[in-house]
Specification:
Blueprint: H1 2-17, H2 31-38, H3 44-49, E1 53-54, E2 60-62, E3 74-80, H4 82-85, E4 109-114, E5 120-130, H5 131-136, E6 144-145, E7 148-149, E8 151-153, E9 170-175
Antiparallel strand pairs: 1-3, 2-3, 3-4, 4-5, 5-9, 6-7, 8-9
């Protein structure tokens, strides 16, 4: 017992003293805890009441919109919290913010799949930080979750598609809590998500 306690204390000291040391994945919420915290958002009215707003263009994001194979599937419609993402104004010319929020018990973004009856079904949660703000806060590496670095998204002006869906360069991580994903729990797109019932815009403005 004394040996285990000593090892735990030593580990804590090392984490505090090592420059850039980060908490282990064990300190992160479990998927079960995340579901418990976000289950209420299955009702989109609850999400809206708590400050989440729909993508103004009401775009249901698909893989091919961002230059990926259509077989990768879709993301869905994003509902986001401007305060958590640090978004303080309209796109100029792209969406930008200064938030560094990565709390998975209060995700910055909720993702919904449009249904045939016009309703929305919660399929995933997401956190997103803008690259410039993240590094300005002193972070040298991109954020990570469960040992996996967030995806890096930045538009390539040389292509016809918008790889960053009207956002400035950013890091994001999707977690498919409410829809099984054959590509993996943390993949950016899900073949089991469809935008066929979307009533919003069919794509992004030219860039």
């Amino acid at each position: 017992m004394r040996g285990r306690i000593g090892a735990a204390v030593l580990t804590a000291v090392v984490l505090v003293c090592m420059p850039g040391a980060k908490a282990s994945a064990a300190a992160e919420p479990t998927l079960e805890q995340m579901r418990a915290a976000t289950e209420k958002y299955r009702d989109v009215k609850v999400a809206v009441a708590e400050g989440y707003i729909a993508d103004p263009a009401n775009i249901c994001e698909t893989a091919d919109m961002m230059g990926r194979p259509a077989t990768d599937g879709a993301m869905g419609i994003h509902y986001f919290r401007p305060d958590l993402l640090g978004i303080k104004g309209p796109p100029n010319p792209r969406v930008n913010g200064d938030g560094t929020h990565t709390d998975w018990l209060k995700p910055g973004i909720l993702i919904y799949e449009p249904q045939a009856d016009g309703s929305l079904q919660l399929v995933a949660v997401e956190n997103l930080v803008f690259a410039k703000a993240w590094h300005a806060a002193g972070n040298t590496e991109r954020p990570s979750f469960r040992g996996q670095p967030y995806d890096h998204m930045v538009d390539d002006p040389a292509t016809k598609v918008d790889e960053a869906h009207m956002f400035e360069e950013h890091y994001d991580r999707h977690v498919w809590l409410y829809r099984e994903n054959p590509k993996g729990m943390f993949a950016p797109f899900n073949p089991n998500v469809s935008c066929k019932h979307s009533k919003g815009s069919a794509g992004h403005a030219a860039h």
